[in-house]
Design goal:
The chain contains eleven helices and 22 strands. With 450 residues, it is α/β, with parallel strands linked by helices. The longest helix has 20 residues, at 249-268.
């Protein structure tokens, strides 16, 4: 597959990597589509132009890929994935354990590559636990996070041998303790804390003020004291994660310093804090004017924390590792005018790429094969019969034709796996039809193996 040539480009080839998900992961009687699932990863190789912008595959190679696999299509770049993991590993060193948050992208091939590189896993559902196991993440290096853990998830995690689990309330702590008691285990846990000091607002807020995540900072000592009375769990640390997609190294470093201060105050009160989990937070650019996260500047604080404190530190990274490795490809089906506005209909939509808090990110869009300057403003909509199915509104693009191929960059994180039905790999709900005093099952409940 030829790659474009030119003085500004230094390119390498295209490969295809296939990972088969073992049929044994699925319960008997599953559909052939589920039991025979094979995930194909199309590997793009990126190069850099003089102005630092990521180009990816040549237009010719993208067309070849699409001709073979069709659209809509996600492409993931393993070389970029490796580059991101090795870069963060280099600056953090051995003092920080890096866990991949499968919620960012639960693709098996991506997970397997990160496991091969030595990354650990962060999972939030039974489905993600199955994927982590199939990908080869070590159970002892797996942390189970997120609110609302069901007894089924807790039991599965305990049987899997997950090394750590967060607890987000006293109710959840008792639930973990009960399941551990039944299995005659003692599970190490981290208490998730909602800090009193609010984020600077430079990223995407997660836990700010009134929130479903964790326990408020002023409640933490009382909750930890109660956890002490439970015989089958042992609280060994804390987790604080209140803001995501932070591009300022100084802002994220301040979060870490504040978190360590909370851990030290709890230790001073007699609680055996060994582990400090910072959650995630490292962002990636979603606008042309945004600058990448400064790893070297960030490292100065992380090294200082490691030198001055004897905690084990954890980072749960998703977006930073995989976002820039992914591109979403979709083809133009129709172009029309509506009261002076150009409307473009494509074959992909919000059922594949749902980012309501990052709608501006879809403006990182290129028209494959066209290098003309923008000459029209268009709104790009998917094929769903809903006005909400809008990928990007009022974007300046070159002249478009039916059949043109559009590429949306930086979709490797919270893209396909962020759909409302697929997020965190939770199973589908059952559907029951009621008619008078009779009822019947119309659709079976999904399984974590789905």
């Amino acid at each position: 597959m030829p790659l474009s040539e030119g003085p500004r480009n230094q390119a390498v080839g295209l490969g295809i990597v296939r990972w088969a998900l073992s049929v044994s992961l699925f319960s008997p009687g599953r559909t052939a589509a589920a039991a025979g699932l094979e995930e194909t990863l199309l590997v793009m190789h990126h190069w850099r132009t003089n102005d630092g912008l990521s180009i990816g595959l040549s237009d010719r190679s993208v067309q070849d890929v699409v001709q073979r696999y069709g659209t809509p299509l996600y492409l993931y770049d393993l070389s970029k994935l490796r580059q991101q993991f090795l870069a963060i590993s280099r600056v953090l060193g051995k003092d920080y354990a890096i866990h991949y948050s499968l919620k960012a992208n639960n693709n098996l091939a991506i997970s397997a590559e990160l496991a091969r590189l030595g990354c650990r896993a962060d999972v939030s559902s039974e489905g993600e636990l199955l994927i982590a196991s199939a990908a080869g993440f070590p159970p002892a290096g797996t942390i189970v996070t997120g609110p609302g853990k069901t007894p089924s998830l807790i039991k599965a995690a305990l049987e899997h041998g997950a090394g750590l689990m967060t607890v987000e309330s006293m109710t959840e702590a008792r639930r973990v303790n009960l399941e551990a008691q039944r299995l005659r285990r003692c599970q190490r846990v981290l208490l998730r804390i909602n800090p009193a000091r609010k984020p600077a607002g430079h990223g995407l807020a997660i836990a700010t003020g009134i929130t479903k995540f964790g326990v408020d900072e002023d409640q933490a000592p009382n909750v930890m004291e109660q956890v002490r009375s439970l015989r089958n769990i042992r609280c060994v640390g804390i987790q604080i994660f209140s803001e995501s997609n932070i591009l300022s190294a100084d802002t994220l470093a301040r979060h870490h310093v504040d978190t360590v201060a909370i851990a030290l105050r709890l230790r001073d009160r007699g609680f055996p804090i060994e582990i400090v989990d910072f959650g995630g937070g490292i962002g990636v650019p979603y606008r042309p004017a945004e600058r990448p996260f400064d790893l070297e500047r960030y490292a100065s604080t992380t090294h200082e924390l490691a030198i001055n404190h004897d905690f084990q530190f954890i980072l749960e990274l998703g977006r930073y590792l995989v976002a820039e490795s992914g591109t979403y490809l979709t083809r133009v089906l129709d172009i029309k005018q509506s009261y002076g506005q150009t409307i473009v209909i494509v074959d992909g939509g919000v059922n594949h790429l749902f980012r309501p808090r990052l709608l501006h990110a879809n403006a990182l869009l290129e028209v494959i094969g066209k290098r003309e300057p923008p000459s029209q403003t268009v709104s790009i909509h998917g094929p769903l019969p809903s006005p909400e199915d809008c990928l990007v509104d009022r974007l300046a693009l070159p002249p478009l034709d039916v059949g043109d191929l559009l590429a949306i960059r930086n979709c490797g994180a919270y893209g396909l796996s962020h759909g409302l039905l697929g997020f965190v790999s939770h199973p589908m709900p059952a559907e029951v039809v009621v008619d008078g005093d009779r009822h019947r099952l119309a659709r079976e409940r999904g399984s974590p193996a789905d």
